[in-house]
Amino acid sequence: MTQTATPSRLLDAAEELLAQHGPAGTSVRDVLRLAGVANAAAVGYHFGGKAALVAAVERRVVDQVVADRERSLQPLVDAPDVEGLVDGWVRPIVTLRCAGRGRYAARVFTRIFDQPPARWEANGAAAIRAMAGRYCAVLAPLLPHLDAAELTWRWQSVTATTDFYAIGALDFGAPDPGPDDVERHVRRLVVPGSALLRAAAS
C-alpha cells in the first residue's frame, strides 16, 4: 500500500463506521481493521488522532456539499427561481447518496448538527448554516408572503426532508439508489419542497 493510499483508506473506513455508529461508537482500532492498515500508529501519523480523523471525514463530505451548493447558487443570484434554488440545495445530497459510498457519506453529513455547537466550525455545520442563510436571502423576494422567520422555518423543513432522504428513511424497503436515480430523486424532493415554500402563510 502506498503512503498516499493509506489516508484515503482510513477516511473511507472511518466514514463507514461513523455513519453506522457515530463518533462515540467508532474506535481507532475498528477503523484500522476495516481499512486493512496494520500500523497501529497510522491514524496518529496521518491525522493526529481520532478527533482529527473524525473532523477530516466530516469536512470531506461537508466541503463537497458546500462547493456544489455554491456552484448552484451563483447563477441563481441574478435570475432566481424557487425550483432552481430548491434543486441547488437538495441535488448535492441526492448525488452524494446515489454515489458509490453515498449511504455512508450522506449519513455522516446528517450527523453534523448532532454534534455540540462548539464543534460546528470544525465539522462544517456552521458553513451549512451560513449557506442556508444565503439561499434564503435569494429566495425572500420571490416569496413576499413569508416573513423571515416563516421562510427560515420552511427552508429548515426542506432541509429536514432532504436529510431524512439522505439516511434512507424515505426508501420504504427500496434498494439503495444509484447514479441513474439522481434526477428522479431530485424531482421527488424539489416538487414538494417548492410547493411548501409557495404555500400561503400560516
TrEMBL record:
Signal peptide: none annotated. Residues 4-64 form the HTH tetR-type domain. Keywords: DNA-binding, Transcription, Transcription regulation. Transmembrane segments: none annotated. The keyword ATP-binding does not apply. InterPro entries: Homeodomain-like_sf, HTH-type_TetR-like_transc_reg, HTH_TetR, PsrA_TetR_C, Tet_transcr_reg_TetR-rel_C_sf. It comes from Modestobacter italicus (strain DSM 44449 / CECT 9708 / BC 501). GO terms for molecular function: DNA-binding transcription factor activity; transcription cis-regulatory region binding. It comes from the Bacteria. Residues 27-46 bind DNA. The keyword DNA-binding applies. This is Transcriptional regulator, TetR family.
